[in-house]
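Appendix B, Record 12. Input sequence as logged:
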Amino acid sequence: MKYRKLGRTGIEVSELSFGTWAIGGSWGKTDDRESLTALNKAMDAGVNFFDTADVYGDGHAEQLLRTATKGRDDIYIASKFCRAGDIHDRNTYSENRVREYCENSLRRLGRERIDLYQIHCPPSFVIEEGDVFEVLNKLQAEGKIRAYGVSVETVAEGLTALQYPGVQALQVIFNIFRQKPLEELFPKAAAAGVGILARVPLASGLLTGKFDTGHEFEADDHRNFNADGQQFNVGETFAGIAFRTGVTLARDLRWIAEGRGNMTRAALRWILDQPEVTCAIPGFKNTTQVEDNLASTEVPSFTETEMARLRDFYQDRVHHEIRGAY
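Logged structural output:
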């Protein structure tokens, strides 16, 4: 496992890390025993960083991390807040509320400090006004959090967040179908010493190449109930691309798997080949998925010719298919 600096936090995290939304809920059926086995498999392989949120299974994902890590100080955890309340209510970002969110996460995680505390995809005005960053500065000074960042929906929000000197990480939707951050956001983040966490790296599974257009998802899977942005930002599901369109586009990308085992490993490798990225954070529900994701760190990097081919594919075939602001 290779490790990369996370912004200016002073810690180094595994370039292939993991998100815990899927084991918390909203991705269909889960099995806690399998989730814990998978978490341990990842840690045994050198993964030292996990991303979670207080709303993943109403805190269940944080509790699973507590069980799996048992307070190990060599495992870093990022959590997120605000979506347990009304994200459009300014009071959600008040000192009292943010402290409450933080203390609740600390309790569920069984920790005295959260390594990276992130605002969880707030409305743009929250980032623009910036009052919440003063609250986070206080929590940081008190040792409740090591560092803080913002999980954003759009490049514009990320650029705004970079204006605040305390922001040390941005979490962004980034994959072969969502290349816009490469144009301006990533260079500016690198210049500011801000880390990048790449979420939705497999476009909710589209970039695994395993789906056909007739596939049906379980009722409690967000790929069913948020397929068109009915519940939250459409970009969080299939990277904002209509499912059937995404299946067709993924079929035309099968060539990336040549010499790399499969599309999953190739799609993650492409992300890791971007020097501004601190880590990719794919989700998982079992050990097989963890092992497949981990294999991306060992497969060949993309050549300049392949990179150019994928840039052209994005420009010619993909970007106009993305729905919602990004």
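The beta strands are 3-5, 12-14, 18-19, 49-51, 76-81, 114-120, 145-151, 167-173, 195-199, 279-280.
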